[in-house]
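Practice problem: predict the structure.
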Amino acid sequence: MSAMYRLKQCYPKGISISNLHTSSQACAIEHFKMLVLGGGSGGIAMSARMKRRFGADNVAVVEPAETHYYQPIWTLVGAGAKTLASSGRPTASVVPSGVKWVKSRVQEINPDSNTVITDDGKEISYEYLIVALGIQLHYEKIKGLPEAFDHPNIGSNYSIQTVEKTWIALQNFKEGNAVFTFPNTPVKCAGAPQKIMYLADSYLRKTGKREKAKIIYNTSLPVLFGVKKYADVLWEIVRSRNIQVNHRQNLIEVRADQREAVFENLDNPGETNVVQYELLHVTPPMGPIQVIKSSSLADEAGWLNVDKESLQHKNYPNVFGIGDCTNLPTAKTAAAVAAQTAILDRTISKVLKNQKPDRKYDGYTSCPLVTSYSTVVLAEFDYTGQPLETFPVNQGKESRIMYHMKADLMPHIYWQGLLKGFWGGPGPYRKLLHLGMK
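Answer:
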């Protein structure tokens, strides 16, 4: 009887103990029907959707940060077109009302016992788990960083601490090399390293400094962009603006005192190239979150191991994943997350009914390639790298309308649509605009 009493204390009224796939003998401090790890775009959007599915009292989200940022706008922040303040809102304001916000960092995930341990020692058990922990930045893997950011001519749009430094470096530029990098790892928003380069070119032209500048794009990739249709238009832009592109060049060291960036030639390992810079924008190496990497949820590379069509974990049927932390073979963008939320919501609804998921994620992602302060090339594509365009026009061209959509409309859709669980990507509108043929 005393054991039964303790069990009731562990699992509140209304939770079906028989449905728990748990072997844990410990009494968790808290239990939730749905536990969401991560309060980024995927985590908050799925928390809103799960609130409607399970009820607020049965959902919790674990997130340590006090502020939630709309990171896609940081490209424009680094170029002085938007303020950093406009990109952030208090986390408390975006967590769905009634959903429990656990203001901690995830320390350990134990899917065999259906428990999570936070950095303050709290143990939380769950019936279902959504992992939305994002991606880890690794500035420290480049020798000389992050301390080089103390210098006024180096920045990075990928971090809250360094995005405004990009704008400072751009304003301080006088003459010389403006160098932009792309690392030899997966990255979130793979177009962003180029976007700031095109904006820098526009800014230097506007301020009369472009003739004294040599813009260099050193990328570890063998291509300018992964989808040929958009790569072709980007090559036209690069050539018309006299931008130098060097493939298979990976940044390994920054000597800030000498203003030198050291690159390794990936086609000839051990061979290095030292480039003097007046302005340096760093895209850091990135990788899987350690807490996932060290758990049985990870694949061999450390990413969350999910089915690419259903977003359900391949080994744990009560675990699901979304966004940058997963091993989905598509670009890691907020647009991809939006499309994934609709698919994942449907998958979970089927799992709850012991049915097979019937909607498949096609890998849709979008990258609004900002090419100036007034133009964007809107790249949209699927798992196969084929264009999957929403509008019935050729999106492989620079467009002013698409710029305003990126800068003005998409933030509104993000805050009022995606984070509230109402925006699942442009799929339905694409079918409508293409008369059902896409």
